[in-house]
Every structure is written in C-alpha cells, then in structure tokens.
Amino acid sequence: MTNSVLFFLVFIILILVVWVIYQHTRVIITNRICYDQARQIAKEREATAAILGLSGKAITSEDLSDETFLTHFIEYAQRTLRGVGGAILIASDNDTFKGCAVSGTFPPLKDVPAQVEQQLLAHPKKHTDFIKEIKIPVLISQLVEVCLDKKYVLFSDTLPKGFPENFKKLAPRILMAPIYVHSKIFACSIVVSRNEFDEHALLDKDGEYLVRLNEIASLSLEAIQLFRERRQYEEKLRTAKEEGMLQVSTGIIHNIGNAVTVAKLTVLELQEKNPENAEHPETFILGEIIPRFKKELDAGNLQNFLKEDKSGQQYFDIISELLSHVNKSRMETVKMLSSLSNKLYYISEIIELQQRFMGELGTENMTSLAPVIESSVKIFEETCNKKGVIIKTTLDDKTPQVVVDPSMMTQVFINLIKNAVEAMEAEGGAKKHSLDIILKMDKVENQRMVVVEVKDNGPGIPDDIRAKLFSFGFSTKDKNKVSRGYGLHSCMDTVKKYGGMLSLESKVGEGSTFKISLPVSERH
Description:
The structure is a single chain. By secondary structure, this protein is α+β, with helices and mostly antiparallel strands. It folds into 3 domains: about 45-235, 2-Layer Sandwich (Beta-Lactamase), CATH 3.30.450; about 275-345; about 360-520, Histidine kinase-like ATPase, C-terminal domain (Heat Shock Protein 90), CATH 3.30.565.10. The chain contains 14 helices and 12 strands. It has helices at about 1-60, 65-80, 115-120, 125-135, 140-145, 165-170, 205-275, 280-300, 300-310, 310-360, 370-385, 405-425, 465, 485-495, and strands spanning about 85-90, 95-105, 155, 175-180, 185-195, 365, 390-395, 400-405, 435-445, 445-455, 500-505, 510-520. The chain has a 5-stranded antiparallel beta sheet, sandwiched between helices. Strands 7-9-10-12-11 form a 5-stranded mixed beta sheet. The chain has a two-stranded antiparallel sheet with strand order 6-8. Helix 9 crosses helix 10. The longest helix is centred in the middle third of the chain and has 70 residues, at about 205-275. The protein is elongated, with a radius of gyration of 46 Å. The N and C termini lie far apart (about 115 Å).
C-alpha cells in the first residue's frame, strides 16, 4: 500500500514537472514569436518610412518621374534583403518590359564579352544605361504566370525563361516580384544573391518581404502620379490665368478701340464741316458788311444806301441768310460735339468696366435689354449712316429683365454691330446693306429665353471659318489691319457667364444672324 502511494505521488510530481516544462517552453516560444513579430513590424515600419522618404525625394525633384523613385527603391530593396544586386524593369507595350535601373552587382540580362561584363558588374550607373538600351528577356504574361500563387517567384539554381546561361553562375538565386499600380503590372523588381557561405542566400521569407515592399512602392507610385497630375494642373491654371490676363488686356484695347474709332469719325466730320481755309459767313459779315455799314454811316448816307443802292438793298437778305446758315451750322456742331462727348463718356465707361473686371467686381443686376440695345445702336448709328448701312430695331418692351452687367452686354452688342458693318462694307457692290436687331421672347431647348438677333444681309460666313469664329486669336480681317481676334471670343464668354448661349446662322451671299439667348430670371 505504501509503495502504491509513493508511486502515485512520483507519478503526479512527474506530470507536474512535465506541465511546468511545457508551460515554460510555451512562454519561451510565445516570447520568441512576439519578438520576431515585433522585429518584423519594426522592420516593415522602417521600410515604410524609408520608401515614403524615397517617394518624397521623387516628389520634390524637378522631373517628378517614376524612374527617379524606382531607382532609389531598388537600391533600398537590395540592401534590405541583403542581396548582391538588383534591377527594376518598367512595363511597356506589347507584353514587354524595358530597363529602368540597376543596383549593386547585377549580372547582365544579355550575353556580352567578359570584359564588358566585368565593367557592368563594377559600375551600376553604366549598367543602368546598358539595361535601358537592350531588349529585356522577360514578358509581363510570363511574370504573371510564375507569380500567380505567391505574388513572387524565387529561382534557385534555375533560370527564368530568356535569361542568359551565365546569369546563373554569377547569381544562382533570383527573386522576382511585380509592382502593381491601379491593378495593373507597372514594374518588376529583381533581387539576386549568391550561395557563398559568408553571404545571405535569398529565401521564401525574403520573397514575402519583397512583396510587402512592392505594395508600399505601389502606394508611393500612385502618390507620385497624383502629385504629378496636381503639378500639371497647377501649371495649366497658371497658364490659363496668364492667358486670361492677356485676353482682358487685349479686350481693353479692343473695346476702347471701338469707341475711339467712332469718336475719330466724329472729329473728322467736324473738320470737314469746318475746314481751315473755308470762307465762313461770320467772316463775310465782319469783313465786308459791317465795314460798309460803318462807312455809309460815317458819310451820313446809310439810310439812302439801304433804300436806293442795289447792293445795299440786298444786305438785309444776305445778313438774314448768313445768320440762318451760322445758326444751322452751330446746331450741327453742337449735335456733333454732344455725340463726341457721348463717345468719350463711353470710353471712360469701358475703362471703368475693365477696371471692375480686373478687380473681379461683379455688377450684375436685373436689366431690361431694350435700353442697352438702343444705347449700343446710338453709339454706332453715325458710323452706319456714313457707311450707308440702314439699322432697324424691333424691340419688344415687354420682354422680362435678365441678370446681366449692362456695360458688358453693351460691349457684346457693339462688337456684333461693328463686325456686321465691317463685313458689309468689305463686300461693297450696289447692294443696299441693312442690319436688323430684334429683341423678343422665345423658347430655346424647352426653356424660356430672352433672345436678341443681330441680322445682316452681308456676304455671309463659310462653314470652315464658322467653326473657328469664336476661338481666341482667330480673325477674318485683313492681315494689314490691326485685329487680334478677340471680339467674338469675348462675346461668347460674356454670354456664357450669364448662363446664355451665342449661336450663328449664316449663308454665303445672303448674310449672317448672331443669336444671343439669355435665361429669364426666376422672378418672372
């Protein structure tokens, strides 16, 4: 009985010892696993930080190219995996890769003389230039096939299809893994090692780690592409801003030029009516009639001269006719000076408008277009009369108001009127030219619109020119004349700004109709 109890106690003790050893072993193994995991996590964090740093270098570089990043990446991957050499290939067209960069001691992917081989092994930069020029013996479809299960492939004492036989002698272990960007193979990283006892030989765990490095590289490449697109977008914005400033500057000259042209015609007309060498009525009165009156008066013969002398009898009729002519001339001059004053005021309005535009100060108000059209016609009325163009306006006063800047719409109407008049003048001939301006309500694309039609019976516009007519810088005018092709482009931009449309209907030999459609305010 005593022996049985003793045996039982020994058995229990043995079980407890085994259980303690088991638990201790478990703790050791768990600690080791935790240590390895912590080490792996730290390693991957370090790798992430390093690769992000590489992408930062690429982003801040001048060229911002994928090649710059990938060159630094393969150098890092080779060092981290303790390989002797590495290379990066970039996916190209037709299922092929092209060489990008070489790091460390990487065997040539093409059979070359021994002397060349030694130079390439010793000089990675020369090898990078070399790999960019040769045909790469790796196909994208081939890489997908061999990496299908593990996302990487490790060749040990074997060669990928197409590699030169000498490659295996210099690097018997070859690790390859694709880099995906937007679910497509973008590049392929290759790291190689030897089987020397004092060097690290690449293993499957290195393949798994290279896959994770490639995933981080993939995110970095996507970020680089986004930064590149952003830089291109910013460049386009800068260019667009410069072009916009150019257009505004050109617009200032163009619009002031319109008003100055009309003002200049008024001044020329005044000069024609009042030439320097002409005999004016007041000159004849002062120089001839009044001295004769004074002479007859001094002689005491004035009454007799006016009643009995034939020439004296005509003096009152002559004076009356001359004064009537002076009064008529004065009225015409006052009218022309008033017109000139209006043109100069319009010029100041344009300058003020452009200053507001340059300062991006909107002046949109609920506006009735009828007065705007009338003022635009008035500004150009004298020019039309002088050029023999009859302007007719049919304005529906009941059309609702629209939200526009009246000054900018005045510019639009003046541009259209001016272009029509110049086109009809250039056509010449015996045709009686006319310009009809119509304001009405209409439905355009099932929407109520206020429509303005500027219709001429000039030469019309051919189809090939019509397609380019609203482009900035395009002009149909004679190259000898000053024209920057800004007017219609500006009109289109202005009308679009207010949610409207500017269209053109034209038939060669019959004339053109420019149609402005502006949406009716919701208040109506």
